[in-house]
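Format notes (please read before filing issues)

Several people have asked whether sequences and structure tokens are stored in separate files. They are not. Every record keeps both together, in the order shown below: the sequence lines, then the token lines. Line labels are part of the format and must not be stripped during preprocessing.
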Amino acid sequence: MRIIWLGHSGFRIEIEQAVLLIDPWLTGNPMFPAERRAEAISGATHVLVTHGHGDHSADAVAIGKELGIPLVGIYDLMSWLAEKDGVQTVGFNKGGTVALGEARVTMVNACHSSSVSGPDGPRYAGAEAGFMIAGEGHTIYVSGDTDIMADMGWMGEYHQPDIGILSAGGHYTMDMARAAFAARKYFNFKTVIPCHYRTFPALEQSAKVLADGLPGVQVIEPQVLAPISL
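Then the structure lines:
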């Protein structure tokens, strides 16, 4: 299994004969090298979207159409994109599980907001979500944009993820200290990868606080397009 950061909250996860692009914001992302777009999306089988904000969903439709692959996410947003843009979608909801190749993806709760920009202002885009991705003997918790929430208690106990991809930049989501607290209190991760940081000055620029708060856990500060093999 390989996990490749695309900058901000975007990831490419190669697992169980599937290549999943998670929130692949490439166009206009100051951390992503535009000349490497083809490399980043090559062979992708699905695009997973945690919520409607542009720094997560803006490239989803274009990639889905270019590669002829489905967008996967919460029913409301997927239904609207299918109708508006004619893209393939797999819409489901929290508690639901879908098979993507041999990987199984369960939608779980997040605590944030979700909208898309339009000429008349923000438009409702269904609820925000995270994902539990199971395959190859691992379960990856992709938190999506979220703060700490009590739901993490049962999510950690029930799904038992060993890898956490956690939004941790602060300002819009939990910061490094809060992410460390959530990981200690609710999960038993072997590996944690922070995201939603370093993109803008308002966000945290280092994961040192996260690493210091999780002794015994492998905290990996990802580098854009550098594969992490687990």
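For reference, the curators noted about this record: The chain has a mean pLDDT of 97. The longest strand covers residues 103-109.
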